[in-house]
């Protein structure tokens, strides 16, 4: 039995056409290591029926799909087309999100035969081996939900995850060599995702990362060894000339002090091997507190880590308690200000401005946090609304309180009611900003691209560029910092004006006029100012004959941010 893994992707959920989710890449690599035929195919479903037909025309015995929050409707189309052409083919689905709806999916979708629950490597292998033997009863395969010969849904015992991640092969990178290369230095002009661990030590109430580990009572976090991680980085740098890396772990320094020692060893090994890379990592706010921790952060920079995203989520202890974060508001402030003061990294924040328990008071605390930490310049942080994930602890809490409104289709995300009238109305006014105001999306991309460039100019591998443009770089950086400060102040004043207007009971027309003035009229000019700054400096570097593969980052925005997805229910 040969397997075709079809990546059904929607516009906005990939950075470049050669990018494939690590789940699919890891599964393909594992099966190939075991002697199986496993091919990877791209289906850009947003481009129309031709892509659906092309995916369905792939020849295989078994078809595998990774389900996401945005691709399920398209996966249904491809699976149905596959079954219409090859009724005898088997369709297998999985993934970390919608697979929790396995009973609904198998009961409703006749084109999907089985669903992997949890990690997919060994479950998929055993499924293929059973098909090789001509079996139709899959009761012995742990981690599988399947439809039996009578149409009933069967759920097998859960499978414990792989303990030794070093035993797994590096993810397959089937299309990476086709990525755009810099004409000067030959480096890949795209970022590459790498995962050094699986799971998360957090217990955030809004998240389901650890849903399966709770089911099979396994470890919440497992990490690869430092040498194994750097072996993969070295391979990607050597074979694909990759320069930019996105470490997609829940938090790079997990778990605790042992995790810090592991992170330190990874950085030391990168430095020892003299790898020329630039990386982005995620970090907790309660983690780095001592001078030894500051030394570790400086080591991050020496190893090529230039971008740090902190998971603050909220600016008040009240909401942090609801989200069951380990960090306090004081931790959030300390970490954000410390990283800003160090001046080594481009600092971004994971933040939930609006959630099910938002009030005028929590919103004021949130916007004050962003302003004080120099992060109010990002409209992404000002507008982010908590998306309710089924099976999360917060979902069950809201369900018990009667605040959940289920979607019309079972695979779509539910919405929730914000009881506080001020919190609810303000959240609805800020909803879907990227879809409503294109200048905001363009500004967001420009800010992220410039912030990345500023941080990566001081990366060790870009020392020659920095030496050649040191004075110009300082002026460029100073201008960007000033632009960000000024924009942050505008955004801050606007947010408070809207909040005060809602509290007074101002009309929607009056409040929408505030949005139009800032995000249509003013942002059009502000965007041009940012664009001129970016293009002029980058042009000078390029004209001097330097390659850009270690400097230029292409930001992308998820389809969930660009469509009209509702997250909060209106009154009534």
Structural key phrases:
21 helices; globular; alpha/beta; about 15% strand; 5-stranded parallel β-sheet; single chain; 7-stranded mixed β-sheet; about 575 residues
Question: Would you kindly provide a written description of the structure presented here, covering whatever features stand out?
Answer:
The structure is a single chain. The chain is an alpha/beta fold. 46% of the residues lie in helices and 13% in strands. The protein has helices at 22-33, 49-56, 72-85, 102-108, 121-132, 211-215, 226-239, 256-272, 291-303, 317-322, 329-342, 360-372, 379-383, 393-400, 421-429, 433-436, 438-457, 463-468, 470-504, 508-543, 559-562; strands at residues 3-9, 38-44, 62-66, 90-94, 114-116, 144-147, 153-155, 191-194, 197-199, 221-223, 244-247, 278-283, 305-313, 346-351, 404-405, 415-417, 568-569. The strands form four sheets. It has a seven-stranded mixed sheet, sandwiched between helices. Strands 8-11-12-13-14 form a five-stranded parallel sheet. The chain has a three-stranded mixed sheet with strand order 15-16-17. Helix 17 (438-457) packs parallel to helix 20 and helix 19 runs antiparallel to helix 20 (508-543). The chain is globular and about 70 Å long. The termini are far apart.
């Amino acid at each position: 039995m040969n397997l075709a893994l079809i990546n059904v992707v929607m516009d906005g959920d990939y950075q470049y056409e050669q990018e494939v989710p690590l789940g699919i890449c890891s599964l393909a690599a594992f099966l190939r290591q075991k002697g199986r035929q496993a091919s990877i195919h791209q289906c850009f479903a947003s481009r129309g029926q031709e892509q659906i037909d092309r995916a369905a025309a792939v020849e295989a015995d078994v078809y595998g799909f990774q389900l996401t929050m945005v691709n399920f409707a398209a996966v249904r189309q491809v699976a149905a087309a596959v079954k219409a052409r090859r009724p005898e083919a088997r369709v297998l689905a999985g993934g970390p999100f919608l697979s929790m709806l396995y009973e609904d999916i198998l009961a409703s979708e006749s084109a999907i035969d089985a669903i992997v629950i949890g990690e997919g490597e060994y479950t998929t292998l055993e499924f293929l081996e059973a098909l090789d033997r001509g079996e139709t009863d899959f009761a012995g395969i742990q981690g599988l939900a399947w439809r039996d010969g009578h149409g009933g849904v069967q759920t097998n015992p859960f499978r414990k995850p792989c303990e030794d991640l070093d035993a797994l092969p590096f993810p397959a990178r089937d299309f990476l060599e086709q990525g755009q290369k810099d004409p000067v230095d030959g480096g890949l002009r795209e970022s590459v995702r790498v995962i050094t661990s699986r799971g998360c030590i957090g217990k955030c109430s809004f998240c389901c990362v650890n849903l399966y580990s709770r089911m099979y009572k396994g470890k919440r976090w497992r990490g690869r060894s430092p040498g194994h991680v750097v072996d993969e980085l070295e391979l990607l740098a050597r074979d694909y000339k990759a320069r930019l890396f996105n470490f997609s772990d829940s938090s790079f320094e997990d778990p605790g002090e042992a995790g810090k020692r592991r992170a330190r060893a990874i950085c030391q090994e990168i430095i020892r091997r003299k790898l020329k890379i630039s990386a982005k990592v995620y970090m907790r706010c309660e983690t780095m507190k001592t001078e030894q921790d500051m030394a570790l952060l400086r080591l991050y920079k020496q190893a090529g880590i230039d971008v740090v995203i902190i998971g603050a989520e909220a600016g008040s202890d009240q909401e942090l308690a609801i989200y069951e974060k380990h960090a306090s508001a004081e931790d959030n402030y300390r970490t954000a200000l410390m990283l800003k003061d160090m001046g080594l990294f481009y600092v971004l924040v994971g933040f939930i401005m609006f959630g099910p328990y938002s009030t005028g008071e929590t919103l004021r605390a949130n916007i004050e946090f962003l302003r004080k930490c120099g992060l109010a310049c990002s409209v992404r942080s000002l507008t982010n609304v908590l998306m309710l994930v089924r099976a999360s602890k917060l979902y069950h809490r809201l369900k018990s309180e009667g605040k959940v409104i289920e979607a019309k289709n079972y695979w779509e995300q539910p919405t929730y009611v914000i009881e506080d009238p001020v919190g609810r109305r303000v959240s609805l006014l800020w909803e879907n900003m990227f879809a409503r105001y294109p200048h905001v999306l363009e500004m967001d991309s420009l800010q992220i691209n410039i912030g990345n460039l500023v941080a990566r100019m001081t990366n060790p591998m870009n020392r020659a560029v920095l030496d050649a443009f040191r004075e110009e770089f300082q002026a460029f950086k100073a201008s960007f910092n000033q632009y960000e400060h000024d924009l942050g102040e505008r955004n801050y004043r606007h947010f408070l004006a809207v909040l005060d207007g809602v509290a007074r009971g101002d009309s929607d027309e009056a409040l929408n006029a505030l949005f139009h003035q800032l995000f249509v009229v003013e942002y059009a000019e502000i965007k041009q100012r940012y664009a001129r700054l970016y293009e002029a400096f980058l042009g000078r570097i390029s004209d001097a004959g330097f390659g850009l593969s270690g400097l230029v980052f292409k930001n992308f925005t998820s389809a969930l941010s660009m469509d009209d997805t509702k997250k909060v229910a209106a009154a009534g």
